[in-house]
Design goal:
The chain is mainly alpha-helical. The protein has a domain at 5-42. The chain has helices spanning 5-14, 24-42, 73-77; strands at 83-84, 87-88. The chain has a two-stranded antiparallel ribbon. A hairpin with a 2-residue loop joins strand 1 and strand 2 (87-88). Helix 1 packs across helix 2 (24-42). The longest helix is centred in the middle third of the chain and has 19 residues, at 24-42. It is flat. The relative contact order is 0.08.
Amino acid sequence: MSIDKDTAARVAKLARIRVEEDALPALAEEFNNILTFIEQLGEVDVEGVEPMTSVTPQKLKRRADEVTAGGHPEAVLKNAPDAREGFFAVPKVVE
C-alpha cells in the first residue's frame, strides 16, 4: 500500500492536525516508511514465541476476583468538583 499526498492530507484532517500544503509530501513519505516497517514486522517468524508483557521476566500481581462494595465512595468523591447522590456530576454534553 502506498500513501499519496491526498491520503496524507485526509489522515491529517481526520486526526485534526493542521499540516501545511508544502509539508504533505514529507508526511506521505513518513507514512510510507511506517507501512514498510509494519510489512517487515509481518515477515518475522514468531512460531512458538510466548507473548510477553515486558522485556524483563516479571510475574504479574494477582488478586482474588471478588465482588466488593467498592470500598469508600466518600473518599473517591472527596476531590470531585461536583458530586451528587454518591455519583460524579458532569455537565450535559448531548442534547
